[in-house]
UniProtKB/TrEMBL annotation, chain A:
Lineage: superkingdom: Bacteria
The UniProt record lists the keyword Lyase: yes
Gene name of this polypeptide: pdxT
Reaction catalyzed: aldehydo-D-ribose 5-phosphate + D-glyceraldehyde 3-phosphate + L-glutamine = pyridoxal 5'-phosphate + L-glutamate + phosphate + 3 H2O + H(+); L-glutamine + H2O = L-glutamate + NH4(+)
EC id: 4.3.3.6, 3.5.1.2
Active site positions, chain numbering: C81 (nucleophile), H180 (charge relay system), E182 (charge relay system)
UniProt keyword Thylakoid present: no
Protein's organism: Klenkia terrae
Pathway as given in its UniProt record: Cofactor biosynthesis; pyridoxal 5'-phosphate biosynthesis
Protein name as it appears in the record: Pyridoxal 5'-phosphate synthase subunit PdxT
SUPFAM superfamilies assigned to the protein according to its UniProt record, in alphabetical order: Class I glutamine amidotransferase-like
MF terms (GO), sorted A to Z: glutaminase activity; pyridoxal 5'-phosphate synthase (glutamine hydrolysing) activity
NCBIfam families linked: PLP_synth_Pdx2
Gene3D superfamilies: 3.40.50.880
Function: Catalyzes the hydrolysis of glutamine to glutamate and ammonia as part of the biosynthesis of pyridoxal 5'-phosphate. The resulting ammonia molecule is channeled to the active site of PdxS.
Automatic annotation (TrEMBL), chain B:
Superkingdom, natural source: Bacteria
Lineage of producing organism: Bacteria, Bacillati, Actinomycetota, Actinomycetes, Geodermatophilales
Catalytic activity: aldehydo-D-ribose 5-phosphate + D-glyceraldehyde 3-phosphate + L-glutamine = pyridoxal 5'-phosphate + L-glutamate + phosphate + 3 H2O + H(+)
Protein name: Pyridoxal 5'-phosphate synthase subunit PdxS
Key words of the record: Lyase, Pyridoxal phosphate, Schiff base
GO molecular function: lyase activity
Residues bound to D-ribose 5-phosphate: D29, G158, G219, G240, S241
Active site residues of this protein: K86 (schiff-base intermediate with d-ribose 5-phosphate)
UniProt EC number: 4.3.3.6
Amino acid sequence: MSAPRIGVLALQGDVREHRAVLEAQGARTSAVRRPEELDGLDGLVLPGGESTTIAKLAHRWGLLEPLRAAVRGGLPAYGSCAGMILLADRLLDAPADQQTIGGLDVTVRRNAFGRQVDSFESEVDVAGVPGGPVHAVFIRAPWVEEAGEQVQVLGRVSGGPADGRIVAVRQGSVVATSFHPELTGDTRLHRLFVELVRAAA
Amino acid sequence: MSETTPSTTGTDRVKRGMAEQLKGGVIMDVVDAAQARIAEDAGAVAVMALERVPADIRAQGGIARMSDPDMIDGIIAAVSIPVMAKARIGHFVEARVLQSLGVDYIDESEVLTPADEAHHIVKTDFTVPFVCGATDLGEALRRISEGAAMIRSKGEAGTGNVVEATRHMRSIRAGIRRLSTLDETELYVAAKELRAPYDLVLEVARTGKLPTVLFTAGGIATPADAAMMMQLGADGVFVGSGIFKSGDPAQRAAAIVQATTFHDDPSVIAKVSRGLGEAMVGINIDQIPAEQRYANRGW
């Protein structure tokens, strides 16, 4: 097929980094800020950022329901950090009114590793990503507290106080990571997602 | 291998990466937990805790210092978004205190009264990241060489007047563009003129951008001000006195957030600018004596 079209939710966050990595994997990207900008997409990326801000803007601009419909309808989606929070069906440590897009049958805890002084870099083995562990950057990151039966756990933290915590998951064509591959130059997770999008298209 | 996986905090990537997550967002000055909640509800990506907003510091005079730890604790407890706080220029003990309180970013800020007239804090020594103000490219690169992980224009805080932020954004961006036209020999001279380390000058010349995000600050009071700064190349916006010195802070805060996201769409900016009530009154820069301008603080 020709280059898949992947939209990056561009209400706030590290949109530019995701677009650059996706384009380097052969995708065409576009910014999504309005419902009509979801038309004709083969895949969707939810970037890192502040999840409360992104959710509020999505709600205010009538984007939340179209995003839910798109993901429910099978549009492949990948979320990093705030993107994982947006894809979760259930949240912990979030403001009571924080809404999500959903699509992953998981409970995600916001800021689970602590505050910024606790943000860290580590190595994480990710199932389906060949060539050794992924160098993972966790920034005020969430983790998956509980995952439903349909959810495949792709990666866990190893070592340290958070040993064994789930930080990469997949359910059908929806993928999420607690960490930010868009910040490291390691393109393997984005390549995996672009391949998933190609296969689904 | 699992038991020996090294995990490191306080790296450049973690510090600068935190600021990357704030891009396209608005960081709002707040002086108590109630204001912090209004800011979070309006869609702020972070709040900046300080004892008085710059307009009040300017009006009341006296020495402006780091905030009371109880006030910072109260704000941290009130919101789930990142909390930043200001330390005086060069006051490395205030910075240590703020780090121990668990703030997510420290602003080594010219809005507070400087504690050192020659030296900034050695920011590489800290786990918590720092943001610093700059008026031009050389100042931005000096701060980055000391360890700043985020740069903002200084503007002229507490004035509600965007003219100085405009000047600083244009100056920093023009400085970057100029470097990209120079050859290697000329870059050595440029580093000398900028009073900045050669390796950073070379990096900016090669990449065409700062190695950190560049936000804007100092005098932003309206949705259109925020959108203009974004179009001048800012990665995001700090709003100080402009929100809580206006007639309807909650509505103005939400409007500035939306204008920052849709900064290239005048119809959105028009829509959110309606019925906002009074903007802060503001001050003309030429009515402020040079020695009282905050942008002149820092070296």
